[in-house]
Amino acid sequence: MDNCIFCKIANKEIPGKIIYEDDICVAFLDLSQTTNGHTLVIPKKHFKNFLEVDNDTLAHMIKVTKDIANKIVTKLNANGVNILTNANEVAGQTVMHFHLHIIPRYDNNDQIEINFSDRSNEVNLDSLFNQIME
Ligand code: 5GP
Ligand code: ZN
């Protein structure tokens, strides 16, 4: 897609530190390096985000992501990893070409904080369940 920075990286029109590539996807180091080894896995074909990506492409990418995550964890001596994706601006998506983040974790003081706050006493689980299931 014209003017998409990740299409340009996939097409080698602009440089990226590509650590994996096949016919369907590419993985390269994220410029921000939130933690050491922070990597993005993207499809070569342009899809906006997780909500829109083709299922076969996604299935392939998640397997590739597992292998790359294991390689990074081993090579960089990480203790764990977060795999995450942001869909749409409200969720923090800034580049509108689908990507999976691989964020290696080293210890509790590394540079990313993910906090699932407990709102269980504020919400009605039954009504949410019914809204989703109706
Ligand atoms: P999002 O916020 O959309 O989930 O993540 C976009 C990510 O792309 C950010 O972590 C940002 O650092 C990274 N990024 C943006 N532009 C470039 C670029 O030109 N090259 C690389 N390697 N990463 C980029
Ligand atoms: Zn694109």
Description:
The chain has 134 residues and is of the alpha+beta class. It has 3 helices and 5 strands. It has one domain (5-133): HIT family, subunit A (2-Layer Sandwich). The protein has helices at residues 5-10, 55-75, 125-133; strands spanning 18-21, 25-29, 39-43, 80-84, 100-105. The protein has a 5-stranded antiparallel β-sheet, covered by helices on one side. It is globular and about 50 Å long. It binds guanosine-5'-monophosphate and zinc ion. Zinc ion binds next to α1.
Kindly summarize this structure in a few lines.
This protein is α+β, with helices and mostly antiparallel strands.
Residue-averaged pLDDT: 97
Task: Please tell me the CATH architecture by its name.
Answer: 2-Layer Sandwich
Q: Beta-strand level of the residues, as a percent range? A: 15-25%
Bound molecules: guanosine-5'-monophosphate, zinc ion
CATH class: Alpha Beta
- Radius of gyration based on Cα positions: 17 Å
Poorly predicted segments:
none
Q: Please state how the strands of the largest beta sheet are arranged side by side.
A: 1-2-3-5-4
- What best-fitting shape do the alpha-carbon axes yield? globular
* Annotation, overall tally of beta strands: 5
CATH homology superfamily name: HIT-like
Q: Could you tell me the CATH topology label.
A: HIT family, subunit A
The major β-sheet equals: 5 strands, antiparallel
The helix/strand order is HEEEHEEH
The total of helices stands at 3
Structural class: alpha+beta
The first-to-last residue Cα distance is 38 Å
Fraction of residues in H or I helices: 25-40%
**How many structural domains can be distinguished in the coordinates?**
1
Quaternary class: single chain
